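hiii, so i know i said id send this last week but things got crazy w the move. better late than never?? heres the sequnce for the chain we talked about at the cafe, plus the structure i predicted for it. fair warning i was half asleep when i ran it
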Amino acid sequence: MQCCFRSTGRRCLLRAAAGSLRPTCSTMLAPTSPTVSSIRPGPKENRSRCPKSWRTFSSSCLQMVQVLKDYGIHSPKNFSAFASFGFHPVGAGVPWLPAGAQIGIPANFNSTPDDTSGITNRTIYINGKMVDWSSDSGAALQQSLVFSRDAQRFAVAREVARLQSGGPVLSAAVAPLCLGGVWVYSVLMKQLFGLHGGPPLLRGAVNVVALGVGAVSYFLSSDAVSQWVDCNSDRRAAGVSRDYAKGGVEFYDKILSRNKTLRSLMGQKGEEMYALSGNLFPAHIFQLKHTPYTSRRDGILTLLREEKA
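okay and structure toks below
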């Protein structure tokens, strides 16, 4: 899919000062942005004197600060935020390592239902064509990209939960563990059939079988770990409060609506990438790759029903 925002990226670091959290921000050029001057507010400059675009991203940083407080993060200095491409937050790293964790906040999170300028003042290209916001499909896409504050906070909290629980580490550990399993399978089968001193051809065949078993183990384990991390992150984020849970339902409803719109805008490529329901199709026949968005939404709805009961 060829889809991108053209905007200026910005980076915001969250720091603890005098027992409270403050975002300190500076602009950072994105690969597709034009050349601009760096904006660095002095220590005595207040927010009202900063450019409007800087103040808008600063509000997103303040929202992330609130999410960290609501989630009960005791070491917010290990988290940093940056302006990311795409349509929903992304995260990398883990907060309990020296490098800390980083969460990318997309440009459309600067918009609200009352003010869509964070979307409409940017140009989005899909398959090389500019999206016309005044068209029916453009209006539908715009509507799917505008989230309420609760939905935005859930989306950020979901990434915080994933990084806090070590999701990237768990996902990265699957491949080396399965590779080690290939060696174990090979040794065990050679011992079982007494092939350590046998013909090279038979030992090679055993190695191929072990490699096949390891590949199957990797695909199954990778899917299982990915889905567990996704569902666990959703459950933790929705568990912050009922408002966060309702925001989670809205967040996934909007993602499904967005994917349906992209499916029609992208033509054949969209039909190959998105299902009619708005879920992503599997990466290939052996691996699901993505937890269905409908399942993630239904999981949060179940939590809300259980809480109400």
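btw Residues 3-165 form one domain. thought thatd interest u
miss u guys!!
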